[in-house]
Amino acid sequence: MKIVETPLEMQEWALKKRGQGEKIALVPTMGALHEGHLSLLKEGKRLADHLVLSIFVNPLQFAPDEDFKEYPRNLDADLKKAESCHVDIVFYPKAKDLYPKDFQISVAVDILSQFLCGQRRPEHFKGVVTVVLKLFNIVQPHVALFGQKDYQQLRIVQQMVQDLNLPIQIKPMPIVREDDGLAISSRNRYLSPAERQAALSISLSLAKAQRLVDEGTENVEAILKAVSATLYETKKVKIDYITLCDPKSLESLSHLKLPALLAIACFIGTTRLIDNCILR
Ligand code: PAF
Asked: Annotated catalytic, 37?
């Protein structure tokens, strides 16, 4: 496994491999690798001749009051995990190389960023897709893998690939959960034991919604009410949003139309967690 730090070296390697007709898979991450990332890496290895993992905590996608400084960074542990998944190249760029002083061009997202997390984090997705486009240009992947836990991110990346005619296959990957249902996230490590226990109400509330749909409930209000009641049962959860929306446009549904995306963001203490499921 090789570590490459400069965009130029990474791009030269990628263009050479492409020229030789070899296939490249990219798993873009901000490090702090967990089982969710490892599932992407294992699938990436299966899909291509070369597997590239990028690790870069992207300052552009954090607002000034967010956890950019505190975001967990542990390169040594990440490298061990990467090695165990047979990563070929770890691309580990420096911020000054991705964003030189005169950096000024970014990708704007018109509609998809107005919903869900975009309401609270208005500049977030612009930062995400700008760095993702840069990573695509540098790593030149044939396929890139994204987890469905960050569903809105996945949808916006898919839309960028479509709208900007990028010759890249986006492979969505299922949410990986702990045995008790908690969606795995780098931010789970911020939770105290009591908060972690409270966080279980998130996956429980998603399951509750699916049960209601299975039983024939079609009333969107009733589903949302049941979800918030389940979340509030623990008294430790502050809901940011609960949305039942169209999985492609992300527009809220007033009448249930399946499949529908049920997405939740909430604070447990100071930690903001997101989770979702597709109701069928
Ligand atoms: O999901 C993430 O870890 C980040 O948003 C990504 C896609 C690596 C861009 O910085």
From this structure: yes
